[in-house]
Amino acid sequence: MRSYLIGILFFFTALSNHACAQNCSAAQNYALNRPGVVMIKTVFSANVTVNKMRMDQRVFNRLLDSIQKVDTAGAIFSAEQKLDIVLKEMNNRPARFFKKTFDNIEQSQQITATGTGFFITGDGYVATNCHLIDRDNAFVRRQFILTAFQQITQANIDAFENSWAAKFTEQQKTLLYNTYASVYSKLFPMTLSDLKKTVYVVYRKDTGLLQATETKAASIVIKGLPMPGKDIAVLKIDADTNLPVLKIAPEELPKVGEQLFVYGYPGHVTNNDYVSAESAIEPTLTTGIVSAIKKSVNGWPVIQMDANINHGSSGGPVCNSNGEVVGLTTFGSLENSGGLAAGLNFAIPVSILNEFMDSAGIEPSISKATKLFAEALNCFDKHYYKKALHNFEEVKKLNANYPTIENYIADCKTHIANKEDVGTDNFKYILTAVAAVILLFILFFVFRKRK
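^ thats the sequence. predicted structure below, dont judge the formating
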């Protein structure tokens, strides 16, 4: 009889234990994983130095005199035509008009590259792509010099307009811009010094019902090489032990046709002038399927998917329908125009990420707060608001800034006040049924003993 009672109690426990649902919807996937998705910012700083240049006034005046002679000879030029002649002549022979001085212009420049990552432990380990934090030095130098060139050139064009009391057309500005490009690339090359790099992790950290963000400098624990290398990096920030974490799926590759959920910070959204700055921390969710399992040029597998991504989505988690991470968004396919081809994108599978975590001695683990949060979400979706409220409040005790926690607590209280919780009634029904079954077993054994 004891074994029967144990079986009944196990059945009762199973009924009252609402485990996370399989094949969760896109909304459930986002609610579960959104708190653990982070933005990666790599900030490069450097000083750019270039010689100041001066106009050779003697050569310039000679050009003006020649234009004036032609003008007085009967070929009447408008002011705009005269300006066109001057700018074209300067563009054709810049070395005649521009001379180097002994003075320098030095500008402090800063370039920020953004991408995506996600927490793999509750104490601040983050997975992302290597190419977000390890840009090629030649690429970085070009970006710095291009930025400085644009600023200095615009200042020179503005100075010309002021001194000549003229307003350049767009075509004239373009011509002068090209002139300066020739000058700075051939005559007065720019130099770069004091190049520095700092990597930041930006994540949501709510204060009450107000959405807030936290930005922390990160150290690089381990990294591979940008594609075609194993484009993985693991970062670490100083944090408590109950950050929101995404669960890593088993190493088996997903099947072709399987549904995928992809998180990221596409630049076209993050830098959109019509989107508020405070909502930039909200990741974009796109969905798709596994289109194929391919191999990289170095022989390890990559996941092809048709979910839309863009620059800024690199390093973001690719999740299955159970909310588990199966890969990291890494690279796309280029069209002839140079842009990304829609729906032809690739992710590095978690088996490659595991290699790096094993090498660094990192054990991915779900924080206690995340476990309780997942249980609470499952109860909330099933309208067990009292049980959900209890778990949400336990999450808050562990991490008062857990994203969206206050909103869920407020929603639970509203549903309970409106008597929309179904947990209590179901519990009574289950308890009554179990009690009846137990009573029937007791009566059965008593009757059998007497007989």
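Residues 185 and 217 are 36 Å apart (CA to CA).
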